[in-house]
Fold this protein.
Amino acid sequence: MNTTNSEIGTTKTYKDQHYKLVGHEPYTRVSDGSKTSLAVWRSACATCGQPFVVRTPIRARGFQPTRRCDLHKQRRVKVVPV
Ligand SMILES: [Zn+2]
């Protein structure tokens, strides 16, 4: 596998939020059954600051991961203080 741009420990920044690559996962596309890999990133939720994990396609053209944990990514509401 060509991992030139996906070494474990790689860090990226998206909208001032930091992501660290912590692993890879095999993934089979539902659409055509082809096998690929997902990059597994760790970051901190933009809403609550809790660490969370987000997976992105290794071959994605852009890097646009979710910025929030499972608890907060569903809600597209404005951020309210707890
Ligand atoms: Zn959160």
